[in-house]
Amino acid sequence: MFGMSIPFALAVYFMIWWIVLFAILPFGVRTQEEDGAVTPGSVPSAPSRPLLLRKALWTTVVASAVFASFVWLRASGITLDDIPLPGPR
């Protein structure tokens, strides 16, 4: 698979998926206090409806796009040496 083993590809995808999950989790969250229905025994800042399945699906879609970009970048042969970065002269 473009010069990488299956375990390496799965490990990279797993890391990308978790990073994207933590980026997506805050989107669309409404607290119990905002909805006006605080469940007794919980903090008012707890989410009223976390929508975790929807967020997991969006995470999978976004992580798959990021992973596909990663695979394309690896297959293209572009390295950090090809990117003009400022440095000592």
TrEMBL record:
A Pfam family recorded for this sequence: DUF1467
UniProt KW keywords: Membrane, Transmembrane, Transmembrane helix
Transmembrane feature ranges: 6-25, 56-75
The name this protein goes by in its record: Conserved hypothetical transmembrane protein
Organism from which the protein derives: Polymorphum gilvum (strain LMG 25793 / CGMCC 1.9160 / SL003B-26A1)
